[in-house]
C-alpha cells in the first residue's frame, strides 16, 4: 500500500494569499498521521473532506503559532463529535502544559484520552513504533526547540512468486516463505526452495518532514534515499542571509540537500508571505534538483514504487 | 457618530455550514472593540478587510474555545505586523495565564504590550471608561465563568441651535452652551439663554452583548432600552429543556427578554450546528419581538438615531 501525503497548509507566519498555515496529513499503510496543525486546520480538514475519526496521531514540530494554534480547536471538535479512542499527541516540552491549562479553564473533561509524547530536544529518538513503521525525531536548528519527523516503514517480507508457487499453502507455510525459509513436505522432501519461490521484498517507504530550520548540511545522512522529503524553503536564495538570521532555509539550499541525499522527491513549503507567486521558488529548486515540487494546500503526493 | 457592529462569526461549538465561530467588531465613535475571537477570526478580519491596527481592545466573554481560540493567532499576527501600541485584553481569570504560557514556550517577546484586564466573576463592574463611553460586565449564567458586556455612551452635551445662534462663538462659549449654561456679553448682559439657544442632547448609544448564557429573566433591568442587543439563541424553543441543561437560550426566550426590556433591535446568534437554515429561528423570535435579526457573519448593524 502506498504512502500518501496531503497538504492542508504551508504558509509561514501570517496568513496571506489565501494560503493557510502548516498542516499535513500522512497515510502510511492503514494509519493516518497529522503533522503540525496551524490555526484553521480544522477548516481545511472540512474543506478536503477528511474523516477526523481516522486520525489517532498528531505530531507537532515546534511551538510557533503557525504550526500549532489549530490544535486546541481540533481537540475540542473531536470531543464535540464524541470521540472515545485515545489521541496521541507528539511534540516539544510545553505542549502538554498548554493543552492541559486550556482544558482546565474551560472545565472540559474530554470524551477521550490524550496521550502526550513529548520528545527530548536536540536528541534523535524513536517516538512511535508499531509492527510496520517507526517514527524518529530529527532535531532541527530553529529559534526554539524544533524537530522534524522521519517516517520509515520496517523492512518488508519477501513476496510469494505465484508463477512458481502453484499449490495452496497453509498460513504458516506462506509466512515461512515470506520470512525467507524453504518449505518442506511432510515426508521431509523439499517443496519450495525460497530463492526460487519468492521475490525480493518491496522497498520500505519513507518520508522526512523538516520544518522549521536553517540549513543543516549533516541532515544529508539522516534523509539519505528517503522517497519523499518536505523541507521548508521560506525564502529564495537571494535572501540567504535573512534565512540564516531567522533560522530558515532557501529553496536552493533545500534542493541541494535533497540532491546530495538522493531523495525521491522534494516538497518545498513554509513559504514567506512576501511571495505571492511561488513559481520562482520552484524554478530555483528545480535548477538544482529536478524532482522538486511546491507543497501547496490541497495537493496530494503519492509514493508507490 | 453612529454605533456600528460587524459580525465576523456567530456559530456555536464546531464549525458548520460555512459559519465561523463567534467574533464581532464594534465601533463606538472613533474606537473599535473586538468582542470574542473564535478560531479563524483573523481570516474573517482579512475577508472583511478590517484594519487590525484600529483595534486596541479585545473583550472575551468566556474560555470555551469557540469564543477565544483565535486570540493567540491575532496576538501573533499583530506582533508580525510590528504593532507598537498597547493592546488591551479583557476577559475571565485564566486568560492572561493562557496567553502568557504560550508566549513563554514560543520565546516570543511581543513588539507591543498586552494590558490584561481580568474581571471578577459573578460581579458587574466597569472594566473600561473614557470621556465618552463605559463598558460594564454583565454576569451571565453559563457552565463556566462568563460575562456579557454593556457598552454605554456617557450622556452627551446639548446641541447648539444654529437657527438661534447666528454669531461665531469662542470655544469656551460654545462649550458652556453645550454644558447647559447661559452666555453673557462682556458688559454682563445676556447673549444667549441656554434653553432657547440649544437643543436637547442626543440620546447616548448603547449595545449589550450577551453570550453564552441560559435565560436570565433579571437581565431585563440591565438591558432596558438599549439600542442594540446581541443575545445568544443557540436553540429553538422546542429544545428549551436542552437549552436549559446546556446553559443556553432559545430564540423565543431571547425575543421575550428583548421585548420586555424595550430594546431597539435584537440580534440572534451562537447558532447550533443542527440548524443549517436559520430562518426558523428568526421567525420564532419575530413572532414575539418584531425587531429581531440574524447576526450572520458579514452583516453590519448600524444604530443612528
TrEMBL record, chains A, B:
InterPro entries: RibonucZ/Hydroxyglut_hydro (IPR036866), RNase_Z/BN (IPR013471). The gene is rnz. Zn(2+) 2 binds at residues 66-67, 212, 270. Its EC number is 3.1.26.11. The keyword Transmembrane helix does not apply. Binds 2 Zn(2+) ions. The active site is at residue 66. Its cofactor is Zn(2+). It catalyses: Endonucleolytic cleavage of RNA, removing extra 3' nucleotides from tRNA precursor, generating 3' termini of tRNAs. A 3'-hydroxy group is left at the tRNA terminus and a 5'-phosphoryl group is left at the trailer molecule. Zn(2+) 1 binds at residues 62, 64, 142, 212. The keyword Metal-binding applies. Zinc phosphodiesterase, which displays some tRNA 3'-processing endonuclease activity. Probably involved in tRNA maturation, by removing a 3'-trailer from precursor tRNA. GO terms for molecular function: 3'-tRNA processing endoribonuclease activity. Homodimer. This is Ribonuclease Z. Belongs to the RNase Z family. Signal peptide: none annotated. Pfam families: Anti-Pycsar_Apyc1. Keywords: Endonuclease, Hydrolase, Metal-binding, Nuclease, tRNA processing, Zinc.
Amino acid at each position: 500500500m502506498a504512502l500518501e501525503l496531503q497538504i492542508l497548509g504551508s504558509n509561514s507566519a501570517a496568513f496571506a494569499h489565501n494560503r493557510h498555515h502548516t498542516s499535513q496529513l500522512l497515510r502510511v499503510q492503514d494509519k493516518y498521521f497529522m503533522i503540525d496543525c496551524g490555526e484553521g486546520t480544522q477548516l481545511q480538514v472540512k474543506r478536503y473532506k477528511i474523516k477526523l475519526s481516522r486520525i489517532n496521531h498528531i505530531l507537532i514540530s515546534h511551538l510557533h503559532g503557525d504550526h500549532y494554534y489549530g490544535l486546541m480547536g481540533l481537540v475540542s471538535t473531536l470531543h464535540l463529535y464524541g470521540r472515545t479512542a485515545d489521541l496521541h499527541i507528539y511534540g516539544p516540552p510545553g505542549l502538554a502544559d498548554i493543552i492541559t491549562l486550556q482544558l482546565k479553564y474551560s472545565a472540559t473533561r474530554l470524551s477521550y484520552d490524550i496521550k502526550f509524547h513529548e520528545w527530548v530536544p536536540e536528541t534523535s529518538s524513536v517516538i512511535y513504533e508499531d509492527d510496520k513503521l517507526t517514527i524518529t525525531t530529527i532535531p532541527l536548528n530553529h529559534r526554539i526547540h524544533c524537530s522534524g519527523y522521519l517516517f520509515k516503514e520496517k523492512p518488508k517480507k519477501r513476496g510469494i512468486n505465484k508463477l512458481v508457487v502453484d499449490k495452496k499453502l497453509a498460513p504458516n507455510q506462506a509466512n515461512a516463505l515470506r520470512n525467507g525459509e524453504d518449505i518442506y513436505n511432510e515426508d521431509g522432501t523439499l517443496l519450495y526452495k525460497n530463492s526460487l519461490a519468492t521475490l525480493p521484498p518491496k522497498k520500505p517507504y519513507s518520508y522526512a518532514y523538516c520544518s522549521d530550520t536553517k540549513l543543516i548540511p549533516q541532515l544529508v545522512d539522516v534523509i539519505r534515499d528517503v522517497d519523499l522529503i518536505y523541507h521548508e524553503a521560506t525564502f529564495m536564495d537571494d535572501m540567504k542571509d535573512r534565512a540564516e538570521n531567522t533560522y530558515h532555509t532557501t529553496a536552493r539550499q533545500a534542493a541541494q540537500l535533497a540532491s546530495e541525499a538522493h531523495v525521491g522527491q522534494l516538497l518545498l513549503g513554509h513559504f514567506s508571505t512576501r511571495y505571492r507567486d511561488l513559481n520562482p521558488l520552484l524554478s530555483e529548486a528545480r535548477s538544482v534538483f529536478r524532482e522538486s515540487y511546491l507543497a501547496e494546500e490541497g495537493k496530494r503526493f503519492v509514493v508507490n514504487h
